[in-house]
Write a structure and sequence with these properties.
By secondary structure, this protein is mostly helical. Helices cover 36% and strands 0% of the residues.
Length: 70
């Protein structure tokens, strides 16, 4: 299976490797007063297939999102 094959029009990517502007996303949540859970899934096929790849994906996502996590 092609690891970059998407689900329809999208290709799931680990935070930091996609097109998402996380600073704008979290700024918008703050602007509307949202103060609850944000769930971000590990669905990047490049980081699947072995425990090492999954861990690498989680570490990458953690490092990208760290400035926004309290």
């Amino acid at each position: 299976m092609d690891p970059l094959a998407g689900h329809g029009l999208q290709i799931p990517r680990i935070p930091g490797l996609g097109d998402m502007e996380w600073s704008k996303f979290f700024a918008a949540l703050t602007a509307v007063g949202y103060d609850y859970v944000v769930s971000i899934e590990h669905e990047d096929r490049v980081f699947e297939g072995s425990e090492e790849l999954v861990k690498r994906g989680f570490y990458l996502a953690r490092d990208v999102l760290k400035p926004y996590i309290h």
